[in-house]
């Protein structure tokens, strides 16, 4: 068995913030029950690359049940959780994020959403309620080949000596998501921040009843830069643990990622070189979390 030593505490990034958290009130809210939701959604993706989705039709009870199953897993002794690791490509991970030295104050599960994988993993990770996990995905529209994944993150409260009154520990460092879209649901603990076009970081008010949708790098390319992938990060909370669940929607590995012809104006040129999702993914896994991954694919 290979025993990996834990990252030293001084490897964790600390950032200065003003406490108590001041929440940003400008997050676009898309109400799926309203007729103007499509137009507002496009505007939100252009201006923020991020929005909050309400009236989405997924019952809160279902989300809280899934969350409590996840918490049961994250509350297990470390040695038990390690049995579901390493997250290579799927499984349990602790503090280390990706293969290139990034660390965060986070505990997580990276899961595939394919039927075979789900039934196997649900038996071992959620033995008392294996069906809950399957129910979460059975209704998603999926291409058999699409390279989508699901992530459960658990951010334990950060220790006092690490986070003082004006400093915060990074739970998950700043990055953009490589896929098309990411759909996140968290409990009511704050921590998520997004980077605005004016160069400021703002805190997203948590809302356990809603989903938060982010534009990923692939969608930025597919819209030839009209939608921008949103840089985001998570700060650890000094009092409460944060649990989030994220669905990352990706295309099949062999698919070409390029601006959609239907979105291009006459004579408009692509801002990006040609590449497949496999090529992009390979290069993403060679990068550090905070890197601008699209940079090398720009013309
Ligand atoms: C960010 C989005 C998803 O969480 C993820 C992450 C992945 C990982 O945690 O292993 C990556 C990160 C994410 C982007 C760059 C690479 C890959 C860590 C990392 C340094 C699962 C994904 O698809 O890309």
CATH topology title: Jelly Rolls
Instruction: Flag low-confidence runs.
Output: none
For the terminal residues, how far apart are their CA atoms? 46 Å
State which percent range the strand residues make up. Answer: 25-35%
**Order of the strands making up the biggest sheet:** 2-3-11-8-13-6-5-4
Mean pLDDT across all amino acids: 89
| CATH class descriptor name | Mainly Beta
Counted up, domains total 1
Protein name: Fe2OG dioxygenase domain-containing protein
Keywords: Iron, Metal-binding, Oxidoreductase
Family: Belongs to the iron/ascorbate-dependent oxidoreductase family.
Pfam families: 2OG-FeII_Oxy, DIOX_N
In short:
Belongs to the iron/ascorbate-dependent oxidoreductase family. The protein has 299 residues and is α+β, with helices and mostly antiparallel strands. The chain has helices at residues 37-47, 60-74, 78-82, 115-125, 130-137, 217-222, 277-284, and strands spanning 14-16, 29-31, 50-54, 91-97, 102-112, 149-155, 167-175, 181-186, 192-195, 201-203, 211-215, 232-235, 242-249, 256-257, 275-276.
